[in-house]
Amino acid sequence: MRWFMKAIPLVYLAWAAGRDIRQRTVSVRGAIIFAAAGVLLHMILNDAPADWMPGILPGGALIAVGFMTRGAVGYGDGMAMAVTGLYLGGFGAVSVLGTGLMLTFPVSLWMIAVKKAGRKESLPFLPFLLAGYMVWLILTP
Q1: Which of 42, 53, 65, 85 lies 20 to 30 Å from 114, alpha-carbon distance?
Q2: Entry pTM
């Protein structure tokens, strides 16, 4: 994979995770800009849509879960995952999402155990997605 196709999602996730921590929001405008840049890059590089479009599906699944849970899972998390998947393709997106979810689990348990949060408390997910992406970067050639 070209190095900039790995660097752009890192920049996006770092920026979005910082915003998610501070403001508990994900910028729709930022997601659209990074997604448009990704589509444009794929077009410039003559990448087949079948190679990169499946990467959007995990983000779409998160958005669907957000609708089913009436917002318990944030729609912004799904948008950020879709943008990330646009650059990584299907396997990369599923790997990053799975790693992010696995990293969220022990932190959530710890917060409940030490009574820092209740079961209904929400955590910003994008920092975990960023960490999952960094793990993916280290483990993929």
Answers
A1: 65
A2: 0.91
**Using alpha carbons only, how large is the chain's radius of gyration in Å?**
15
**Which residue is listed with tokens 């948008």?**
79
CB atoms within 10 A of CB 18: 14
* Residue 13 CA from chain centroid, whole number: 7
Query: Each residue of 11-21: pLDDT tens digit?
Result: 999 999 999 99
Q: Which conformational region is residue 123 in: left (phi greater than 0), alpha (psi within -120 to 50 degrees), or beta?
A: beta
Q: Which of 62, 90, 86 is nearest to 76 (CA)?
A: 62
DSSP one-letter string for the chain = --HHHHHHHHHHHHHHHHHHHHHS---HHHHHHHHHHHHHHHHHTT--HHHHGGGGHHHHHHHHHHHHTTTSS-HHHHHHHHHHHHHHHHHHHHHHHHHHHHHHHHHHHHHHHTTSS-TT----SHHHHHHHHHHHHHH--
Chain CA centroid to CA 72, Å: 16
pLDDT (0 to 100) of residue 119: 65
